[in-house]
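Protein 1 of 2
SEQ + STRUCT:
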Amino acid sequence: DVRRRDLARLAEIRARRAAEADAYFQANAEDWDAIRSLHVDERMVEARLAAMAPGTSIGDYLDIGVGAGRILELLGPRAERAAGLDISPAMLKVARDRIAAAGLSHCSLRHGDLYAAPFEDARFDLITAHLVLHYLDNPGRAVREMSRMLRAGGEAIIADFAPHELDRLREQHAHRRLGFATEEVARWFAEAGLELIQEERLAGDPLTVCIWRARKPARKPGAAAASVAA
């Protein structure tokens, strides 16, 4: 019947996507493995990022530069609604199958530019960017876009590299920036109306991963200016 044919068609689509994902990962595995070998175990980064995120209920959550969907898979179960954004259709296919396999039906994926995200103002309670900003020409602009989409009292968590001198990453792995100092990230937060409230450093050799957490101040009743939430 129609339902059986639809299910068979869906299985074929997922199988094709899985094959495409395998080919995509194989084509890029050397680059990713080379990067992973330079910094602390990714499981440790994920564990610390998860610990810094709100506990059992996030509300509305967005992961920008969602890639293969691992961070969305990690934090999505805590959210009432969740979304992932990426400019790469190939990566979105991979993420879509990961999210479907995890049973996260309340998570959606969108194709779009993180400098001009296809979401309204003040929509999200949490936004994450995991090892994304070093690929950008203008990370500060991306932080301002994150702030635009955050509700008052919402939080942004960015995980990226501390400053380093591995200039070869520019040519070999398309890195635009060689890490970020906390002072630089704090300035971007401040310019975007966010306040840096927590930082963690996970030392690696030679790359150190930093995780920065910022909050969008909640407005006091009747006040025009925002103030930091208690």
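Protein 2 of 2
SEQ + STRUCT:
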Amino acid sequence: MTRPEPLDPISLKFGALAAERDIAEGLKHYFLESDAFKALRDGKKTVALGNRGSGKSAVFKMIAEYERSRGSLVIELSPEDYAYELLAKAMLPEERGSWAKQGAYTAAWKHLIYLITMKEIVRSGGKLKTGPEAKIYEYLRDRHKNTDTNPIGVLISFLKRLESIKVGNYEASIRTKELNQLYKLEELEPLLAPLDGLCKKKRVVVLIDELDKGWDKSEDAMAFVAGLFQAMVSIGQRTPSLRILISLRRELYESIPALYDDAQKYRDLV
């Protein structure tokens, strides 16, 4: 009987410690397509909840690979985009800002997701200079040609606009009008139907993962995540062709009263 050749230890690869960092080293070859993965991939669910190390990020990396292989536009927001400490330093606390932060963060998330989606569609070469979609091209050209698209910067910029009205020396009627315009995203309203139409032609998926990185349990961190969930639901109703997937650690989800108390609202999405 022939003795098998000894294995070369240098050639053995066990992959990265975190599977999501192993996408280039074989993750797609050994990844097991679980029921959770299929539910998220196929649009039956939009939120992945799980304990640390349960494979949420690996699932999201594989969904990104799957979508790109089909020609979809994939937008991945990374932990560097969250910066909870920066949020806490930049924003006034609720009692000083005289505002309910969750509503402000919901509007800011919607603004951010819509803006980066429109910019990504234009960047990818979408033909937007004629027809209803021309409104998107004109809006970006006229209002955001030189806007920094760093997600945390866009988010904080929008929140500061809200904050300046809340604490500024405005007459009550002017303050109410300005706030309503921002909360309702009135400047984006004419663009949403054309955007939904574009997303029907060219699938767009936004993946938001690892929200626990840098988590500090602050007022802003909780409003940040709770506002994201509300924004996801609102966007799904207003522009259903734009897909948003969120990954979140279970214990973090259960530590945010606004989410845990309203768990029934999100049960069918998780």
